[in-house]
Amino acid sequence: MKIVSWNVNGIRSRIFNDKTSAQIGKVKDILIENGSPISQILELEPDIIFLQETRCDTTNGSRFKIPNFNSYFNESKESNHRGPNRYSGTCAYISEKLDVKNVTYDISDYNDTEGRIIIVELQEILLVSVYAPNSGTNYDKKIDFNEKMLNFLNNSTKKIIFCGDLNMAKDTHFDKDKQKPGPGTYKHELHFYDELINVGFADTIFDDPIVYTWWDPRAKKIDGLACTRHANKGWRLDYFFTRGFNKVASKVFKTIGETNPLGSDHAPVFLITE
Prior knowledge:
The chain is of the alpha+beta class.
């Protein structure tokens, strides 16, 4: 099985085509343009595409079509600047060839009002895609999220694929020991990585020279891209973890979305399981 996970930083802008959400307007069906980031992802022949930070309610989400895939959107239930078309959100595009038993959007004991979770149940596999809270604006919520998610994952008896933007920087271009901890590098966030490993999950990144999945877009621009991205001075915030699989490997596709203007400040991660 082949799976892509990507924080798109807004599905309505420059993901399916080169237009912004304002330029798309109220077009009924948003189709894929050749050369767009989604068209490049489809060249990888994925069975499932998980997207995070979609910033898109379910009504708008239904307009974004991928042929031969069924779509599932989870939206923020908050309002104003944290409303569904401005904040958070996740979605899954699943090949019609797969036998999907169930799709759900929450876990026990965690009140997800921001559309951060999508759970896909196949016959023998549980797939969980998340857009984890950022500790910069959701410090206590991040602690609660990680605790409840770890408990949920550890209690499953199925094979598990756990992926998404975890807002946890296991790898950075700088020495974390010489920097003051901050969002993504707080002790409790990095400890979540160790906890996953301790309960039997494998970090699937394999022989990848890129490793990083996010580059600060506020840095000086060179040919429309942040100099941090040109120099690959980034953070690894996006992951695939698995449990119960014998052979898995993931890698970063840094150039997908490196359009001018930028498609997303994150890069997609691609997983192959056998």
